[in-house]
Design goal:
By secondary structure, the protein is an alpha+beta fold. The protein contains ten helices and nine strands.
């Protein structure tokens, strides 16, 4: 049984005082009890890779939100922040168990997943989270979702589904050209500012993120069949999602043969084409 953990939901008023910006508050229409299982089946049928937990939760959440909207279900997003992401005096992160055993200690500074409201069998409205990385084949209540991150000092909030990602102090200036640079110190921590940003037309962050997760699982699946030096290199590479991303963006690393490298890049390109088509099709149904 999952223990109940009550991380505080920050009200819009308190959030504005704490972080200087008010998040959008989604207004969701509850779906029926039967529909909730049907929607979960739709998500499962998409074969979104969720076992590589080192990153891209925002991409899974965004694609699932689009998928739900395609089926006339309005979702929101629930964000949970570890103390290290909202407090200057803490380095506490979420300590997660890696289902693949790639890393002994996987840490998250935040996590996000889509949520919806639905009636239960008693006719009561529940808020339910869709998060296969924490529960592969069942919806979670908010308490259950929070408990799986095992951090009572976390804070969570709800936004609408369009909020793709949040600003941190250390990346705010890079992504907001209108920010007055001369009013900011030279070095800033990775603390959330309270501001979120939406994807622009043509952005392909979601497609890339989903494809990177697929690539990571492909690497995990084949690395034991490769020469020892390639296996060792790829084993270390999987520990950091930034290294997996870098593999798709730079020249062939010396540690990999041309055959292995071409095979991995070809697989990534195939998965990118797949997700690009899926995102385009889903968005076309919304227009």
């Amino acid at each position: 049984m999952i223990p109940s953990v009550h991380a505080p939901l920050i009200s819009p008023e308190d959030y504005e005082l704490l972080l200087g910006a008010k998040p959008p508050t989604p207004e969701l229409t509850p779906i029926s009890f039967a529909e909730r299982e049907e929607l979960l089946d739709l998500v499962i049928a998409e074969n979104i890779e969720y076992r590589y937990i080192n990153g891209s939760c925002e991409d899974r959440a965004h694609y699932i939100s689009l998928l739900l909207k395609k089926h006339q279900v309005t979702a929101g997003k629930i964000w949970n922040f570890a103390p290290a992401r909202y407090s200057l005096s803490s380095d506490e992160l979420f300590n997660m168990t890696d289902p693949l055993g790639i890393s002994e200690n996987t840490t998250w500074g935040y996590h996000v997943a889509p949520f919806l409201t639905a009636y239960n069998e008693q006719g009561e409205i529940e808020t339910l989270v869709i998060d296969q990385s924490l529960s592969a084949d069942a919806l979670l209540t908010i308490d259950e979702w929070l408990a799986l991150m095992n951090c009572p000092r976390s804070i969570y909030l709800l936004t609408d589904a369009d909020s793709y990602l949040f600003f941190s102090l250390n990346n705010y200036l890079m992504q907001d050209e209108s920010a007055p640079a001369d009013e900011w110190p030279a070095f800033l921590p990775s603390i959330i500012t309270g501001n979120f940003w939406n994807l622009a037309p043509g952005d392909d962050y979601v497609q890339k993120g989903l494809s990177i997760n697929d690539l990571a699982l492909e690497i995990f699946s084949i690395k034991n069949q490769l020469p020892a030096h390639e296996e060792a290199y790829l084993h270390e590479l999987l520990k950091n999602i930034d290294d997996v991303i870098r593999l798709t963006e730079v020249a062939k690393p010396a540690e990999l043969s041309s055959k292995t490298y071409r095979s991995l890049i070809s697989y990534y390109d195939q998965r990118y084409a797949h997700w690009n088509d899926r995102v385009a099709h889903t968005q076309a149904c919304l227009n």
